[in-house]
Amino acid sequence: MSVKKYTFSDLVRIEQLRRIESVKAEELSYTSIKNIPDSPRSDFSYPEFIYRLKTRANYLIYENVLGDKLRQPNQQFIRARRICLIIAVILGGLAASHAVSESSTLNIYWLLAVLLGFNLISLLLWISGIALNLQSLSSGIIAQLASWLPYRHKYDPTSASLASQAWWENCLTGNIGKWRISVLTHQFWLTYLSAGLVLLILLMLAKQYNFIWGTTLLPDNTLPKLTQVLGAPLEALGLKIPDDPQTIASRIGTSKQDAEARMAWATFLIGVLIVYGIFPRLLLLGLSWVMQKWCEYRFKLDLYLPYYIELRQRLMGREVKGEVIDADPQEGRKPADIIRPPDNVSIPANAQAFGIELDTATPWPERVICRLNIIDQESHDAAISLINKMKAPVLLGVAAHRLPDRGVQRMIKELVDNSNTKPWLILLSKSSAPVASAREIAWFRLAEACGIPAEHVITR
Q: Which of 179, 209, 301, 353 has a Cα-to-Cα distance from 26 of 20 to 30 A?
C-alpha cells in the first residue's frame, strides 16, 4: 500500500497553479523544472504522480514568486471568519443586553426567543439544506454572494485572481465547500450564544434581577407548561428549575420573587441556553469539521483534464522495452535465390480455388470459381476441412499487391500441410494496383517457405 505523500492543501496549490498556467503560461519561467528526473516506477501510481506534481509546483511557485498570491485567498477567508465571529460576539451581547430592562427585571421567554429563536431558524435551514443537498441553504446566502468576489477580474485576470478562483472552486464549492461553510455557520451561532450567555452571567453576578414572563395571545397555562417541558432535561441532570407556584408567581404584575425563585430561574435560563443552544451547535460543529476533513481526504484531482494528461506523460513517462512476440523463423538466414518460372504456366484442370483474405475487387481468372474466401478463423477451419477431403489440386489465390507477412505465411503453410496434393499459388492483381517486381519476388519466397515450388506459382 502506497503512503500518502500529500495533503489537501497541496492539491489546492496544484489546482491554483494549473489555473494560472492555463492563462499566464507565457509569463512564467520554467527553468527550475527542466532537470526533474523521470519516475523510477514502471506502472502508474496516483500518489506518486501527485507527489511529483507537488514537487513541480513547489519549484514553479518559488521560482515565479507566487507563494503570497496562492496564500492570499485562504488568508482572506480566515480574516472574513474572524470578522464574522466578532460580529457574532457583538450581536449576542446586544441581544442579551436589550432583553434586560432598566427596572432590574428580565423577561425570561423574550430573552430565550431572542437568543434561541434566530439560532433555531438557522439550524432548521441548515438541516434542510443538508438533507435536500441544497448548497444555498447549507452554505448560507452570504457565502453564496461572497463567492462572486474572485470573479471580479473576469475580463482581465491576474495571477492573484486566478489563484483565488481556483481556491474558491475547490474549497468553497461541492461537498468540501458545504462542510467548510457549515463549520463557519456553527462557529458563528456558537459564538453568538456564548457571548449572550457570558454577558447574562456577568449581569446576574453584578446585579439582582427578577425574572418575569407574560403573554397576551396565548392561554395562561401555555408558558408554565413550556417551562416544565424545557426543564425536564435539566431536572434529569440534577438541576433545580422553577416549580409551578414559582412560575405562576413570576408572571408580570404579581408579587416580587424570593432568592430561591430567582436562583431557580437563573439556573433554568443558563441550562436552557446550554442544552438547547450551545450543546447542539457543538455537536454539529464537530460533525461538520469531521465531514470537511473526510471530504478533503477523499478529494482527487481530475486527471482527465488536458493539463494533467500532458504532465502525466512528461513526469511519469517510462522506458518501454520492445520485444518481438512473433519472431520470423527465417531471421538470420540468407534468402535463397529465386528462379522465376516460365510465364506460360497454366492453371491445372479441376483445381479447387480458395482465396486468402481477398476483397471483392480482386478478380479471379474467368474459368476459375472460388469455393471459399478465408477471412476469419471459422472460414479458415472450414477450408482446412474441405482440403483434407479433396483429391483434386488446390489453388490458393492471394492479392499480389499485398505485403506477404508472417500471418499470411502461417495460414498458407497450414493449408499446404493439410492438402493431399501439391498446392498451387496464384498471384491475383488489380489493374488499379500494379505489382512491383520486388513484391512478386517476396511472394515467391513465401511460397518456397511454405513448400510450394516456384513452378507452382502462377502470375497474371
A: 301
Q: Is 121 exposed, middle or buried (0-12, 13-18, 19+ CB in 10 A)?
A: exposed
Whether the Cβ atoms of residue 439 and residue 401 lie closer than 8 Å to each other: yes
Task: Output the CA angle 107-111-115, nearest 5 degrees.
Answer: 180
Taking 70 as the threshold, does the pLDDT of residue 455 lie above it? yes
Distance CA 400, CA 448 (A): 16
Kindly tell me the number of DSSP H helices and DSSP E strands found in the chain. Answer: 17, 7
Place of cell 523510477: 40
> How far apart (Å, rounded) are the C-alpha atoms in residues 308 and 352?
59
Calculate helix-pair angle for 174-206, 279-298, nearest 10 degrees.
Answer: 160
| Alpha helices, H only, 41-66 | 46-63
pLDDT in tens, 185-202: 999 999 999 999 999 888
Q: Which residues contact 393 (CB under 8 A, 6 or more apart)?
A: 348, 350, 351, 352, 421, 422, 423, 424
**Are residues 415 and 384 in contact, defined by beta-carbon separation less than 8 angstroms?**
yes
Mean per-residue pLDDT of the chain: 81
Note the pTM of the prediction, 2 decimals.
Answer: 0.64
Distance of alpha carbon 244 from alpha carbon 221, whole angstroms: 10
CA-CA-CA-CA torsion sign (190, 192, 193, 197): positive
Helical H segments across 316-426, by residue range: 377-389, 406-417
With beta carbons less than 8 A apart as the criterion, state whether 289 and 176 touch.
no
Three cell numbers written together for 192: 453568538
Does residue 323 contact residue 439 with C-beta atoms inside 8 Å? no
Strands of 370-374's sheet in order across: 370-374, 352-356, 394-399, 424-428, 457-459
> What is the DSSP code string of 242-286?
--HHHHHHTBTTSPPP-HHHHHHHHHHHHHHHIIIIIHHHHHHHH
Question: In this predicted structure, what is the pLDDT of residue 138?
Answer: 52
